[in-house]
User: Which sequence fits this backbone?
């Protein structure tokens, strides 16, 4: 990950204008080169959303039962359920052409699955596509409502909201190939509001998936920021990326196209006197800063659990396949620098930056290879890397790092140094008393 020095800088305000993502073709087929890093991180376990995984036998039975139960519960909250269902069908029919454009490629109806199932799909592909959007869209918005307590859960839904199944849903909902357009969710959400005081769709979504990344975030505040910004969201992956991204007060004014070099791992930085600090929860996850006067690397809290790799890999894939700025890719590059092995994970966990639910070796392996197979023209942390390296090259941090690395990493070396100091003190005392 070596990078050459560059002078070019870009104004962030200009980048924000260019960061508006085209809705056409924004749900991509992920290239095999990226998938090969971990194929399981790109395929659904139990729930298909949208057309591309519809019809796979192992995704049909239980998931479909929950989806049908959710849409029944939704329409029966209204005085005339049949009329409400018909209204939702008409809404989806009106959105058909626009929704179809969200999927990459010529034929959105090129569905995967068992051939005997798909023969019926291709006979009435337009109608089937609309039914998929209606069923999946209603399930997702009801899931968010029930998770947040806006709608009561039923006794037979306990399995769905168990910890194990919630992680399955985190995985399946945040697959780039398993998305439905955000505007479809908005249409269904607006048509099924029971009260104007209900939380926003963005707020409900962030409350759901925010728990997969951080238990230390102010979800409501970040949701309000996104709503007030008027961001044009295209799907859940896009929303998650904006949730993670820089805040307006991040203090980052420019982006450099390239960075002179990487920074050492967390344990090596600690040896050089760099201190690590978990920052307040109002900061977004990608908002990493370095206080060069005090030598403190400030990193927001990150929850590392079975869903984290899936979410980050699909976020990075979205950036690699689209024209948006590679914010998450740059974050993955920075973590690749900081984490070489389990010692680095343990260090970051001790100071509260990582909340690691995995084996330390597993977490280190995931974090150090998360950005494999990717590329970026910009690096958000270029100035941070330069400041960290400049700090480490000061005479005291440099001398301290050399001393610790060469003499204080093994018990016998520590004993030797202590013995040498004692001998030196005795020698000085002898000279003094003579």
Assistant:
């Amino acid at each position: 990950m070596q990078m050459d020095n560059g002078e070019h800088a870009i104004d962030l305000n200009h980048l924000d204008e260019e960061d508006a993502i085209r809705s056409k073709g924004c749900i991509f087929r992920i290239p095999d080169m990226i998938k090969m890093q971990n194929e399981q991180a790109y395929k659904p376990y139990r729930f298909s959303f949208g057309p591309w995984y519809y019809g796979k036998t192992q995704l049909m039975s239980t998931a479909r039962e929950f989806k049908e139960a959710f849409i029944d519960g939704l329409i029966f909250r209204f005085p005339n359920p049949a009329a409400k269902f018909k209204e939702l069908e008409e809404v989806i029919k009106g959105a058909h052409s626009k929704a179809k454009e969200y999927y990459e490629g010529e034929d959105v109806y090129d569905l995967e699955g068992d051939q005997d199932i798909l023969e019926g799909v291709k006979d009435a592909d337009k109608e089937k596509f609309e039914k998929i959007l209606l069923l999946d869209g209603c399930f997702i918005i009801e899931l968010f409502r029930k998770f947040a307590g806006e709608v009561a859960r039923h006794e037979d839904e306990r399995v769905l909201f168990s910890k194990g199944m919630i992680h399955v849903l985190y995985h399946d909902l945040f697959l780039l190939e398993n998305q439905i357009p955000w505007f479809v969710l908005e249409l269904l959400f607006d048509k099924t509001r029971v009260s104007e005081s209900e939380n926003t769709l963005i707020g409900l979504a962030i409350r759901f998936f925010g728990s997969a990344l951080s238990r230390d975030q102010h979800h409501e505040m970040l949701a309000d920021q996104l709503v007030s910004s008027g961001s044009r969201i295209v799907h859940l992956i896009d929303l998650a990326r904006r949730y993670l991204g820089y805040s307006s007060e991040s203090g980052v004014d420019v982006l450099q196209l390239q960075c002179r070099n990487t920074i050492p791992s967390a344990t090596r930085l600690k040896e050089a006197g760099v201190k690590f600090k978990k920052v307040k929860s109002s900061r977004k996850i990608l908002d990493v800063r370095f206080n060069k006067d005090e030598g403190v690397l400030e990193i927001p809290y990150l929850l590392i659990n079975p869903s984290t790799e899936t979410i980050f890999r699909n976020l990075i894939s979205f950036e690699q396949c689209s024209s948006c700025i590679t914010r998450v890719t740059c974050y993955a590059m920075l973590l690749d620098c900081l984490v070489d092995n389990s010692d680095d994970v343990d260090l970051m966990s001790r100071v509260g930056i990582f909340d690691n639910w995995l084996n330390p070796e597993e977490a280190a392996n995931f974090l150090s290879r998360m950005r494999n197979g990717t590329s970026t023209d910009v690096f958000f942390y270029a100035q941070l890397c330069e400041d960290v390296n400049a700090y480490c090259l000061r005479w005291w941090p440099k001398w301290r790092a050399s001393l610790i690395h060469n003499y204080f990493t093994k018990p016998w070396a520590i004993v030797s140094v202590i013995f040498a100091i004692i001998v030196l003190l005795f020698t000085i005392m002898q000279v003094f008393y003579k």
Remarks:
- Residues 1-20, 114-123, 247-254 have pLDDT under 50 and may be disordered.
- Residues 125-148 form the longest helix (24 residues).
